[in-house]
Amino acid sequence: MHSDTFARYAASNVPRYTSYPTAPAFSPEVGEDAYRTWLASLDGGADASVYIHVPFCRAMCLYCGCHTTVTRREEPVERYLAALALEIDLVRAATPAPPRIGHLHFGGGSPTLIPPVRMIELVAQLRRCFGFAPDAEIAIEVDPRTLTEEMASALGTCGFTRASIGVQSFDPIVQRAIRRVQSFETTATAVRWLRGAGIERVNVDLIYGLPHQTVSACAETVEQSLEVRPDRFAVFGYAHVPDFKPHQRKLDPASLPDFAARLEQAAAIGEALRRAGYLEIGLDHFARPDDPLAEALRTGTLRRNFQGYTTDTAETLIGLGASSISRTKQGFVQNAVLISEYLKHVAKGRLPVARGYALTEEDTIRAAIIERIMCHRRVDLAGECARFGWDPDRVTDQDAIDTLVADGLVRKCGSVIEVTEPAHSLVRWVAAAFDGQLAHHRQRYSRAV
């Protein structure tokens, strides 16, 4: 593939495809009534996953693109936890029988700022309301700067099995620029506390493309991170979207690495992790060969959802908390993003849905094709469409595929489309060829690399 061609695709905006259709397609026309109907249709004991959003941090990291707010006080967190408990009861009352939970994930924000005793109470309530599989994965995102040994112990008591550690970069120059000063020692201590509490599986999150970041600093951050023996790495490119995230305006655009430097940084991180024995999983994840993600990749069962790559095969995802997104076989709903609105809805005994999307059969087929491409970099269009009794031509833009072939992104053999090795990091572009709604929302997405 010609370097100019690669650069043209890599600099373009495309979705991350953690869902299809993507969130910009959601509408207020699909709301609480639809969600209640969908929950009521769940089979007794249906497999499901739960995601809980905790939208609070002690300080705002300037690179952050999450829905979160800064608080130094405990009162806002306690009000939110009380509403969360009510929402859990509302969802359980809307289902005909307790769903069977195989994956529970706490995200944020910084969910480990919940007081330890309140975390124990919250997980106990979840266990009362839902049936948990004996081997359920219970995961949480951790900010080492605010984690306490008491909280790590509480997580062990609750039965957490995995923790994702936010690192981003260990370069002190970068840390000061993004207002996230976090030493390696602080990080290593957090990992030691977590593993001491019985949470053996640890992930590390890294970011490239940050202010003042260099290739050598990226490589050094990987080397330091390897000292805590992570099971997985998630490696993301910084998305500078100050129009959507005003706090990013505090970053000097001139300090951001240019496009060529971003590519070098991503390549350096990937090479360092492969050299250390990690397998590349999909677009931006790396895992040890004995990790469940690696096994799912080998067996063709790897999935992708709002938390990224996963072994979760459940059709139903129950999102709890402000801004959380839920998924059933009928469609998606998203809770109110503003905490004040979320609290208001729940206080009235309402499921706090703000908008959603009802899936069509065509959406379901396109979603299946896109997920195969994102997870395995190849798809048999005829085989995938045959599961739904559809003609592949109905969801294939042949001109777009021909362009991808001519540009060297994919090779085509019969009905099989496969991403070429030089284009692995451009897999989002290949998936986009099957996105029937991309033209309406392209400006909302980040760069492909």
Q: Total number of β-strand segments?
A: 19
Query: Residue ranges: pLDDT <50 for 5 or more in a row?
Result: none
Given the helix and strand composition, which structural class is it?
alpha/beta
CATH class of the largest domain: Alpha Beta
Main sheet record = 9 strands, mixed
Overall pLDDT score:
94
In CATH, the topology of the largest domain is named pyruvate-formate lyase- activating enzyme
How much helical structure, as a percent, in the residues? 25-40%
Widest beta sheet: strand line-up:
9-10-8-7-6-5-4-1-13
* Domain count: 2
CATH superfamily of the largest domain: tm_1862 like domain
CATH architecture of the largest domain: Alpha-Beta Horseshoe
Shape, principal axes of CA atoms:
globular
**Contiguous helical run count:** 16
